[in-house]
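Appendix C reproduces, verbatim, an entry submitted by the partner laboratory led by Prof. M.T., so that reviewers can inspect both the input and the predicted structure.
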Amino acid sequence: MPRTARNIVEESLTKQRADALWTANYLPALPMTPQNFDVGALLPAMLYLARWGHRRGVGRFAATFGQQEGKIQKPPTIADVARRLVQPESTLGSFNDAIGQYLLGDLLLAYCLENKGRALGHNEQVQRIFPAHYLSSWVDLPKEANHLRGVPELLTVLLNQQKTGQYLESGNQNRKEKFAIGAGFSDNALLTLFGQQMLIQGQNASNLTSDFFVEENATNIGIDELLAVRTAQACGSAPLKAKGIDVERIFNRHPLAHRAAEALREDLSIFIMAYGDVVPRQAFLQMLEAGISVGMTNLLLSTTSLLTVWEVTGQVPEATQQISLPLFVDCSQGQDKILRDLSEGSTSEGIRRFERLPLLMMLLRVLDDRVRIDRKLRDSLPANIPDATDWINLLGEIYQERHPRSDAITNALDEDCQRLAEPLENDPDIAEPEIAHHLRHSRGNPALRLAETLCELMGDKLQRTHYVKCLENALMTDQPNGFAIKRRVQRSQSGSNRRMDLRSIVLTTPLLEFLVHRHLRRTATDPVSLSLQGFIKLLRDRYGLYIAQEPPGQPIPQEMLLRNKAYLERRLRDLGLLIGVNDAESMKQLKSHYRVETCNVA
């Protein structure tokens, strides 16, 4: 059997080191796995984390609703769920005839469950449950919690605001915090909002069957909530805690991009507490997912921007100096071809810069791997959890060769390069003489040489492709409440035609409503006035979104900037989010659709 590049790395650097390096993430810098994930599936997982204080393991959805064919458990479909919910003992038993089951299946597909690939029909595999009610967290969709790439844990850590400790602690030690975990329905704003008519039975709140839905008081819940409740009740209990290789506790890791992380935390917490009881549930979920989309995109691009600075200076920028990669917004949503092309050009440049992030993460892993075992440093290393800024600054000092131990570590990394180059040059199965020559003779820093080589050996699919998919999922591309739209075009290059995807940044209606309503509140209880001009400036400074000003490095005619601003103003007026009696910019004020009472956010 021919050897692979992974085999050569294991033989040259040892299997233990290869396991640490042959990956795509670096949790101290970005506490999530940069692969594809579904923003719409995050909230049920966050509700589970908030209620139980640990990560989700195996549940009973497939066993309850799936069909057994021999030894194979088939994934449940809408038809399977409807058939199980109309059993005689169920309160939905009146749907038990053929027409009733079809109607119930349509209701489930519209309000409760989603098929794989957003397919229609009752015989497709179910992939997602909508977070209409807290009990949707009892349904283990997706089946593997790891498929959410650690994003629910990241958002839970941000909302919890625990300053110290390696893990999030259960209980509400600080009564001022609104997002405590494992403390009950009244101590977490998410659980209070989604856990209508829920109480904990018995003295043991950690018992997975202690949650109880009070049927007698449930006189005002919607059909979406009722379907989620009945689906969960059929499962019998919440899923078990994670076991085996999955660590059950939630690591208290904070992102390196402090400014973007704080913006995401503020946006979600203020919007949830101010509007959760005011906005209709379906509209609220659309707006909240849009807010997660813009926040996660900002976090990913800000991480890229600050690590690019770190590579040059060896220091992580201060929070006030951290900026996102600039993106030009097409406020016409593709109606204006010129604005669309400008946004596509800006987004393509942003993605091109983002594609360097896998290399920067590999560089951090290479330095981490050597520095952690250095004889003179290993007993006095700075902590990398919750905040890894000091740790990554130390790696930067060594990378820039300003630290007393830089020479020793650089020499060790150079030896790794030489050790890896020999089999890459001579192995009959993996003949890579160009890579071997680069490892041996390039004048660059040995850490960067080794990182570049490992990224090349891992291949595009395990590095760049995963990161681009992660960004695309964060953008919620082509979704009704997403942040970007994509089109397929054909380009001629060197005499051949090549098809490629171009993405433009847009403000869909749910996203625009989220941004307006969120920034009309300084805090959950404190409203603030906001002019159109102030809103445009806020989007630029907070999220790196350019509307009436050209992004750095992208010249745009003033006429097009004014046209873009006019599109935004027209859309805000059409949505009822802007008032103004004349053309004076200071008189154009944003306004809310929803009246927020103080009692809702106390």
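The first strand starts at residue 68 and ends at 69. Additional entries are available on request from the coordinating office.
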